Amino acid sequence: MFKIPLKIRLLLFFPSPSIFLSMGLCCYCRDKTGFWKKSCLDCVKLQEALDSLEKGGTFGYNELLTCFFDTGVSSEKIKLFLETDLTGKGALRDRIVARMTNEIMEGLGTPSTIDSEKAKKIREEIKKLFLEKEVPE
Ligand SMILES: [Zn+2]
């Protein structure tokens, strides 16, 4: 019979403590939620606003922000919602930047296939470039 190694068995019974630390906290803004809930009421509102925009087809950054501000959620939470990268493949803002870039490039006649992961990489490289640049005295 197949025997499960002890290390795996221990992991099944004692998962990483970070799981317990993040329980009851919103995955976007880290605010308190119900124990089993993934996101707080404000972030649920933002997600619903985003879903309704995505159903309507294509939209720009300005329309997105207007839609988010209309929900009445604080700008701090909106910022966190845009920046949270749940999958590790780019945050919402990277996804939107990638889509808009592709649309613009297609309009210019040179189609591009930038995805959110690539947009995230470019954003991080630009950030690093500015951080490394020495400030003249
Ligand atoms: Zn939240």
Walk me through the structure.
The radius of gyration is 20 Å and the shape is extended. The chain has a domain at 85-132. The protein has seven helices and no strands. The N and C termini lie far apart (71 Å). It is an all-alpha fold. Helix 6 crosses helix 7 (116-132). The structure holds zinc ion (ZN). Residues 26, 28-29, 31, 39-40, 42-43 line the site of zinc ion.
Structural descriptors:
137 residues, mainly alpha, 7 helices, binds zinc ion
Let me know the average pLDDT.
85
What percent of residues adopt helix (DSSP H or I)?
55-70%
Query: How many DSSP helices?
Result: 7
Q: What structural category characterises the helix and strand content? A: mainly alpha
Can you tell me the overall shape? extended
The largest sheet, given as strand count, sense and whether it forms a barrel, is: none
Distance between the termini: 71 Å
Poorly predicted regions are: none
Strand content: under 5%
Order of helices and strands: HHHHHHH
Computed over alpha carbons, the radius of gyration is: 20 Å
User: How many beta-strand elements?
Assistant: 0
Bound molecules: zinc ion
Quickly describe the structure:
The chain is 59% helix and 0% strand. The chain has 137 residues and is mainly α.
